[in-house]
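Worked example (supplementary).
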Amino acid sequence: MPALLLVAAGLASYAGFACLALAMARHWTEASGQVMDVAPHRRSLPPLGFSTLGVSYALCVYRDGPSFGTLLWVLLCYATAIAVALTLTWQPRFLLPAVWRVRL
Amino acid sequence: MERTFAKSMAWLHTWAGVVLGSLLFAIFWMGALSVFDREIDRWMMPKTRLASRPDVSLDQLARAVHSAVPAQASYWRVDLPTDRVPVLRFSYRDSGGKVIARQLDPATYEFIPDQGTAAGTGFIFPFHYSLHLKWKDLGKWFVGLAAMTMLVLLVSGVVTHKKIFAQFFTFRPRKGLQRCSLDLHSLAGVIGLPFHFAVTLSGLIIFITFYFPQAHWGAYGSGKEAKAAYTTEAQGRFTRPKANTPGTLASLGAMASQAEREWAGGKPYFVRVWHPGDANSYVELRRSYARDITMNLDQIYFDAASGEVLHRFEAAAVMKVQRFVSGLHFIQFDHWTLRWLYFLAGLSGCLMIATGFLVWLEARRVQHAKKGLAGVRVVEGLTVGSVTGIIIATLAFFAGNRLLPPGTGFAGQERSALEIWTFYLVWVACFIHAWWRPAAAWREQAWTICVIALACVLLNSVTTGDHLIRTVPSRMWAVAGMDAMLLVLTLLAARVAIRLGRKVHRAVQSGPVSIVTEVRS
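After joint prediction of all chains, the assembly is encoded as:
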């Protein structure tokens, strides 16, 4: 169970940063091949990203309590934000489906 | 200084970084390794690779160490085994004030032969905060200076980095070395800002009584007595003089059970017997902080003969805050996920510093070559020596540990000192190599890392019989993890070296063309 919660928290913070990255015109174009203006969901991406990060935080605190949970979340955010940046570099097309999966 | 605020911050960031970058890299590298200092200890002290951790009987322990404590010792102490340290660590302070430490197997209560190494906790961890420069505490002052500079660099870096939000999540490895280094530098710097800031500031706060003694001088005054009063009130301390008549020692196990009741299940992590054998002897028990970020200072003192409680201590609120902040930095709690994340974050700090150097170099390379300035050449040698050089030196330290036979001595130096000499001599050699062969230094040092890292894994297997095929199924995670990381380093270094080799090959092929174009222009 703790391992599952950790994976869930990691995935949530990855998805959260993916949303925030896709909300940026340049990264949206890299990931979708489209211009930002025509994207139907662009306005919902930042709130979606922040709330997914919130879910990640909640999972961390549920798993480890407030002090360890907060620390875990901060470091998970670091690792996953870097992971999103590297995904954008090498597999930008991967990000879009990753976000849709979380939306469903 | 420059005219505008942003420009002067950029100037500050550039030059503070170049001047103190090497020192910062060394501190970050040793800090990242210190996250796993106990695991490095297991790797470097093969006789302490004990699998199980049986319940320790303190009374049996007291009998076992009794004969090893000299008559005039002011105390003896035993640190109990933990998940990361499966041995009993016994130490005493002799009449001259010198602390002598040995290790025991908790299953048999027998002494483990001296492993002849300072290892992770004795060399790598103290290097991180003191650089092993003991003269006038110079090392600590350098580290303090570097930490203050780091804070300045973080703030000035944010100001300098104009497109901080526009370039979030951006890394373009194909756009040339300078662009790619700058991307990595800001990526690690900006996203890691909370970590780097917290870890640097907490590092300074740990040494608050060293760096900022004015804080307690203000309340207690300065001088020896004031310092003792401060220590007693802030960190807790109980003393009483010797009676100089023989005394007895009651059951330590009973004292430990009483302490556990008082601490609501909290376990002691060390037991210390002051004035052993004296009628005024007393026993100190400290509470473990393996389950909490805050490194509590809870302690209970017992009368050695009767086992009655003499004194209890628990830190006050302000001190608890300091111990919480210290705990964030020391990571003495049991949390493997966090431990690995700290390790990765520390290494990303190394990456940030190294790429910062590359940005400086690439921005000036052409210009300096044209003007005939030596700046790039000097700083490049400095960079190679402090980045790949310290990695090679650390690996040489590990390899030396496996190569030197037990009990070796040379020119009056003990085995553990010889290992440390290996580290420093190899490091110096790396700097010399970097200045001597600037064009090939990166590639040759990358190959050196690759070879020594692999050699360390092989040497460990040959000299101790432990290798991944054996250590993973038998759950010897400390040794397995160390070997696995060495193999990862081998592969990474080989990849880097091969890519650098290709680049040299291409540069040689296109060399005459670029010379021609330069002549034409």
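Two points are worth noting when inspecting this output. Chain B has 18 helices and eight strands. Strands of chain B lie at 75-79, 88-93, 99-105, 110-112, 268-274, 282-287, 299-303, 309-313.
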